[in-house]
Amino acid sequence: MYSPTILIEAVINGLLTGAIYALIALGLTLVYGVLHIINFAHGAILASAMFAVWGLKTLFGIDPYLSILVLATVFFCLGYGVQRLIIGPAAKGEDGNILLITLGISIFIENALLAGFGSDTRSINSDFAFSIVEAGPFLISSPRLVGFAGSLIVTALLWFIMSRTDAGKAIRAVAREKLGASLMGIDVGHVYALTFGLGCAALAVAAGLLMPTFYVNPRIGGAFVNIAFTIVVLGGMGSIPGAMIGGLLIGLVESLSGLLLGESLGQIGIFIIFILVLLLKPTGLFGAKA
Amino acid sequence: MLDVKSIRTGYGGVEVLRGIDLSVGQGEIVAVLGANGVGKTTLNKALSGLLALTSGSITFDGKPLGGSPIAAVEAGLIHVPEGRKIFPNMSIQENLELGSYRRGRASRARNMERVYETFPKLRQRMTQMAGTLSGGEQQMLAIGRGMMAEPKLLILDEPSLGLSPLLVEEMFELIKRLNADGLPIMLVEQNVVQSLEIAHRAYIIENGLVTMSGSAADIAADPDLKRAYLGL
Description:
The complex is a heterodimer. Chain A has a domain at 20-220. Chain A is 75% helix and 4% strand. Chain A has 11 helices and 4 strands, in the order ααααβββααααβααα. Chain A has a two-stranded antiparallel ribbon with strand order 1-4. Chain A has a two-stranded antiparallel sheet with strand order 2-3. In chain A, helix 1 runs parallel beside helix 5, helix 2 runs antiparallel to helix 3 and helix 9 (220-235) crosses helix 10. The mean pLDDT of chain A is 92. Chain B is α/β, with parallel strands linked by helices. Chain B has 2 domains: 1-76 and 153-232, P-loop containing nucleotide triphosphate hydrolases (Rossmann fold, 3-Layer(aba) Sandwich); 85-151, no CATH class. Chain B is built from 10 helices and 10 strands. In chain B, strands 6-7-8-3-9-10 form a 6-stranded mixed beta sheet, sandwiched between helices. The chains are: A mainly alpha, B alpha/beta. The interface between A and B is medium-sized, with 18 and 27 residues. Chain B: Residues 2-232 form the ABC transporter domain. Chain B: This is ABC transporter ATP-binding protein. Chain B: Belongs to the ABC transporter superfamily. Chain B: Keywords: Amino-acid transport, ATP-binding, Nucleotide-binding, Transport. Chain B: InterPro entries: AAA+_ATPase (IPR003593), ABC_transporter-like_ATP-bd (IPR003439), ABC_transporter-like_CS (IPR017871), BCAA_Transport_ATP-bd_LivF (IPR052156), P-loop_NTPase (IPR027417).
């Protein structure tokens, strides 16, 4: 059997990674909850945000954590614009169309990144990537700790927006009762765009938190989105607390099954969970019945 | 207050409203009556800007009404839709708050107090999810949410639908009370008898056209109407 220290360290690492997964799932679940579609461009947008972080660091020497503030704003605006100017008009009111359009956007972005950067894998070199915090007998990677804190802050912020501001309440209203919302004078197109923008901003934050310890290539998004999708299903489609708790759980499962089965089989646990949730509780932990 | 002149509209080539004229004056309850499928809901959609007109005009409060729900709400024409359309995943308090999303935001707290005074049951349950309310309570919430926008005219679409006879009675009492404070109300209903009891004037719609209009008392006494709607 493993020593308790190793087990506990695996648990800690799992939770730290899981928080970032949760952040990526947050945007996916938010867009699903309101627009009722899976945003297929989610991974590609994450990849482009990671390239943006890498670019700002490599070209201008801007620290990834600093670039989060700028990129979150930029990606919010991009997301808002893409929904308002491309997805919304092209969807013509049909949810099925939105699905196809986001798929198209993802193909476009991935290939644009391939054309611009090639298929090489790139990473940021910084000393901080290797710095460690010692907590008793445990060694914890500092950038992962920052990532964990950042994810919690973003989740709390998003929760605050959704439950305390008029804009957030309008988003929740549109999610369940579009007609009722528009009769209250809520601009449904604006709410859709706002939601999409928030989802993209969350991805930009995730990119900034990931890049110090991770690498980027044009196809990197797919791997994350598979996991994020599992989290969304586990937590309940459309639920923000569900995304956070689901993310932490999935991170934990990945880390522990990696420890027990070997690094290359670590993700098996995630997909076993995915299948079990679909079999036993298809609405997820926090999901509402359809 | 509201002046509708020969409006025509429909869905993709199928004309549902074929030239409707009607008006609602200050302080009036005007009943718009008709069986299922004659165009009442389409009329409401046109008035609240959800459906574009093919011809005709809508004047509200002396100005032409812009063709969007936002413009209608901003002007103070508030539509309480058929089937309530409340936000089931949100608390009663939040539902009411969103009533003043576009209009009446500055006096939100005061208006909410007024709504809670009108509907004490809602105050008792203000943190409860709206989806867990009974049909009658949901209808009260829908009306309360409409009141939050400080309506100049309230359109009530089938407020008695799906309620028990006792609650229907209560609902019509409530409509009278709201109107007693000077609020003009356009009441769109299938419930002919009770609507005519509280309305000042009424329009009967058949097949996308107004076939009868006049004071509620006259219409209630009309032999044709009795035959068509009351089976007398």
